Amino acid sequence: MAIPADKVTAESAAAQSQETWRGWSDHVARTTAVLAVLAAVASGSYANQFSRTILAQAEASDQWSYYQAKSIKRSIRAGQVEMERALAAGRPELSQALTRFETGSAAETARYEAELAEIKARADTLEATKMLHQKQGDRFQYAFVVLQAGVVLSTIAASARRKQLWVAAILCGVAGLAMVANSYLLYV
User: What average pLDDT does the chain have?
Assistant: First the structure.
């Protein structure tokens, strides 16, 4: 018994379409896997930068607290000098002791001023470091969102058999990859 030619053609066309779909779906699956890995890298990098931001904030806060303590000590020392002057105002026999005290206090105040400048510079550096980590973390987070959108689009493309969605997923992947690279480089 012979099979009609139009049935053979329809069956072979269906088989070819199925084979084309199978090859295309393999590409979609690989794309989804690559996008998921990139999203995981972006997510891990965001978490790393977030931790570094918190650490830098704590270190900067410690430095500002130290700065404040040194500033208070300097102010107390200046108050002591003023009090000694007031106490010695009517007593000439204390003038030599007051002079020695003022000389020692001036040296100590100069030391406090130098220390305050160093502490402030360190705190400002830590603040800048914190801002850099925060900025990088934000960029990794945005990259993660774009890459996750690519994963979702790729998954929907596979189930709906829509190549346009797969192309959109690839574009999200390229954009997300550029965002991850930019986050590491922190240029734009």
Answer: 84
